[in-house]
Amino acid sequence: MSKTMDSHISHLICDCDGVLLDSESIALAVLHRELTPYLPPSMLQAGPALHSAIAERLGMMTNLLLDEVDSEFKLGLGAADYDAINLAVGRACSEEVNPVPGVREALAAIALPKAVASNSSLDRIHAGLRRCDLLELFDGHIHSGHQLGSPKPAPDVYLAAAAGFGVAPRQCIAIDDSITGVRSAVAAGIRVIGFTGVAHDRQRAGARLLAAGAERIFDDMRQLTELLSKQTA
């Protein structure tokens, strides 16, 4: 399930939620809880479908996710609802999040310069990384598609991460856990490995990441050093 990786890689770019922070399940639970009361009477039995629709869109900027789910389920969300839901998700993901198992040890063992490229806001990224004792590993190289105004799947945030290093995208490799993120990295000309370690359905998630353009997938952060070792020789 992989393609040959034969060009030299000198820099590592990581997505945040679902790669560094085990926050996807938190975001999913909060979004489902917050959106269920908006289901119209004719769709009160659509709770499981709503849950699946949210899960499939994790990795998108929250407002874009809300746009699509609102349209699909006719929730009738207003501006104040968007603000309240964003606040609830951001607070939970900042205050309750834990690191992905093994990620700190894996990153500490990798000598490549490291950056973060995420659709979350800078405040949320910093808060989550600080809580999980990961912030110092990235030496200020933290980039937000939310701040850029062109979130994933647009390539801008990955291009910004490469530019922040002063290197060409082809010198970087990305780790991402979402279809949105994989497409963003591919569009930027950055090779990407898909991570499924905190996915709800690892097999399905892996197949979808490969279809989106990931070169290979893995589900245990203890595998990351070995996956990257051939690129740093």
Summary keywords:
233 residues, alpha/beta, 6-stranded parallel beta sheet, 11 helices, globular, HAD-SF_hydro_IA
Explained architecture:
By secondary structure, this protein is α/β, with parallel strands linked by helices. It is 46% helix and 11% strand. The protein is built from 11 helices and 6 strands. It has helices at 24-35, 47-57, 62-73, 79-95, 103-108, 122-131, 145-148, 156-165, 179-187, 202-212, 224-229, and strands spanning 11-14, 114-118, 142-144, 172-176, 191-195, 216-218. Strands 3-2-1-4-5-6 form a 6-stranded parallel β-sheet, sandwiched between helices. The longest helix has 17 residues, at 79-95. The chain is globular and about 55 Å long. The protein starts with 10 loop residues before the first strand and ends with a helix.
Broad shape: globular
Q: Oligomer, anyone?
A: single chain
Structural class: alpha/beta
The low-confidence parts are 1-6
C-alpha termini separation: 23 Å
Percent helix, as a range, is: 40-55%
Mean pLDDT: 91
Question: Please, how many helices?
Answer: 11
Q: In this structure, how is the largest beta sheet organized?
A: 6 strands, parallel
Identify the strand order in the major beta sheet.
3-2-1-4-5-6
> Radius of gyration, rounded?
17 Å
